[in-house]
Amino acid sequence: VKTSSSFASAHVFPGGNLDAKQEGPIPSAESTQRHVDSEVYRIGAIRECFEESGILLARDSQGNMLTIDDAEKEEARAKIHANTLKFTDWVSSRGGVVDTASLIPFTRWVTPIGVPRRFTTQMYVYFWPLINGSSSSSKGLLEGKSEAEVLVPTSDGGKEHTEAIFRSCKEWTEMGSKGDVILFPPQYYLMWQLSKFLTNATTDSAEVEKQREEARKFLAGGGANGVPWADKCISPQTLGLWNGRAVLDLSKPGPELKDTDRKGETGEVVLVKFSKSGPREVEVRRRKEVLEGMRVEAKAKEGAKL
């Protein structure tokens, strides 16, 4: 929403702050465990996804996705958001278990110093079971079971956002590049990576599963420096300007982790033009190419001065 204290008017993933009343004890700000994937973060991610989109990532006793009547879901969303109902207790009371095991960690982002509010944010990918098929992330759980329901995300009524939409990663990144929507660098970068595999150009379940399998292989590996995507920690730092846009370095993990073995990604950088309305003209480019371009641009400017 426009009045949000973070990412106002932007298109973002479902997510939010951890809550000790909901998720249990949260690692302290001084602990490096605050920047490590854990059950606390996974429950928080699934809770926020439910609050903000109505999509419930939970399984029943048979291993199927837990289905709840729409009216009951909406009532639960409101109570959980108001913190008058504990998410995991509610799921358990409905005969389900929160499906934290199926979340695939896909980088952690730490807000750079100098920004009024700073966060350490764990990102995840979740593959909803396919209709007329089953994804290998749920192998053994859906064989012989009923088809999964078709997902329709819904707004939370304007509490934190006004609309919930599914589009392909490619569509989102194209809209972000054109400036049709506000996408912050983390969202843009992760969808840019996944758009190489998840094209959404087909409704054939076998082809979609094939795309998902390629994405899983990618997520299980590492980028240019070999650090697994699950373990990468990125705190964007501005290297300078190139062709009028800020060049964001993705290789540093953030000041809180500077003396640890945590690393970001060295293969790419993100180009972005920051404005009062938010980031615009976002683009991912090869780091080596951009640094060389910056050197050429700097030499040209120096020559012009002479």
Give the % helix: 25-40%
Oligomer: single chain
Report the portion of residues in β strands: 15-25%
Overall strand count: 9
In DSSP terms (H or I, runs of 4 or more residues), the helix count works out at 8
Strands of the biggest beta sheet: in what spatial order? 6-7-8-9
- Residue stretches low in confidence (pLDDT < 50, at least 5 long) are 134-148
Largest sheet: 4 strands, antiparallel
Give the overall pLDDT as a whole number. 89
Form type:
globular
User: Structural class of the secondary elements?
Assistant: alpha+beta
* Rg, Å, rounded: 21 Å
Question: N-to-C SSE series?
Answer: HHEHHEEEHHHEEEEEH
Task: State the end-to-end distance.
Answer: 50 Å
Give an account of the 3D structure:
The chain is α+β, with helices and mostly antiparallel strands and about 300 residues long. Helix content is about 30%, strand content about 15%. A hairpin with a 2-residue loop joins strand 6 and strand 7. Helix 2 crosses helix 3 and helix 5 packs across helix 6. About 5% of the residues have low confidence.
